[in-house]
């Protein structure tokens, strides 16, 4: 009964990196190009102010940079609906309804809330607690059926399903779909290049090894040459990567960039030492990533064009979101 539709979003928090590309953007592009779903991709600026308020110019710049990153990575604003959350007001309007559907107990159990609010929950913003209800609204205002996310978002997706189910039950309707998380691929967790037991993340300012999407070819190659490895050669099969997190990470990154299975990487490189393998990986990474960073820079030179694309995206989005909000209000008696 629901149109197969994908929704996913990312915060405009700056400093896009290889983990964001392989774990999110590239998979979004693959779903767009597979053509089995309508695809809606969103910069979630309303979410970006839940932890701390950002400097206004920084937020504006980050939003444009994220949009440039998406387009450079292959999101086509004609094929996909590409939007900035605050420009489609129905997200926030439905979020209010969901604030009244979700229970305080549900919100307080979210591990991301507990991690981010820490021991001083009294000082956290109300928005940080309500974050997952807004995320549910982002998804359900499109009646999206499938949501590609990382492992870390699984619990929020469960909450989205609970909110939809409670709304449907309490009003005796089958209005909101029960969404399916799509968590797959070898790069759902790209690890830190100096410590393969931690994930690559922008929230680690001391990490100089992180490959950023704006890095040029020389920088990418240098960071890969310096990546931590062990003295053993590459094994012949993936079982041989057990207990070798740094080695496994580099093999997985190679596989994701080259769009092959990790075993196929080992078939080509079994017995090679890491000095040699890292040179091959640097070639693959530069070939894939430097055209993206160049295209991002080109797009960032014309912010008015980015704003025009987002304006057009919002118009297309509202063809879907305005009727769904109207029907929601109607069900509620508004
Ligand atoms: P960060 O952890 O750098 O702050 P975000 O939490 O903003 O990144 O994540 C944005 C998107 O990128 C999410 O879909 C998330 O799952 C994905 N992502 C972030 N870091 C990684 C990583 N190291 N490996 C794979 N995907 C990642
Ligand atoms: Na994060």
In words, what does this structure look like?
- Helix 8 (154-171) links the parallel strand 4 (146-148) and strand 5 (180-182).
- Helix 4 crosses helix 7, helix 4 (90-101) crosses helix 13 and helix 7 (126-140) packs across helix 8 (154-171).
- It is built from 13 helices and 5 strands.
- The model has no long low-confidence stretch (mean pLDDT 95).
- It is globular, with a radius of gyration of 21 Å.
- With 334 residues, it is mostly helical.
- The longest helix is centred in the last third of the chain and has 30 residues, at 303-332.
- The two termini are 25 Å apart.
- The site of adenosine-5'-diphosphate has 19 residues, from helix 1.
- Keywords: Aminoacyl-tRNA synthetase, ATP-binding, Cytoplasm, Ligase, Nucleotide-binding, Protein biosynthesis.
- Homodimer.
- GO terms for molecular function: ATP binding; tryptophan-tRNA ligase activity.
Helical fraction equals 55-70%
Structure classification = mainly alpha
Low-confidence stretches: none
Distance between the termini: 25 Å
| Shape-level CATH architecture of the largest domain | 3-Layer(aba) Sandwich
Number of domains: 2
The average pLDDT value, as a whole number, equals 95
| H/E element order | EHEHHEHHHHEHEHHHHH
CATH level-4 homologous superfamily of the largest domain = HUPs
GO cellular component, one term: cytosol
Motif ('KMSKS' region): 199-203
Protein name: Tryptophan--tRNA ligase
Pfam family, one: tRNA-synt_1b
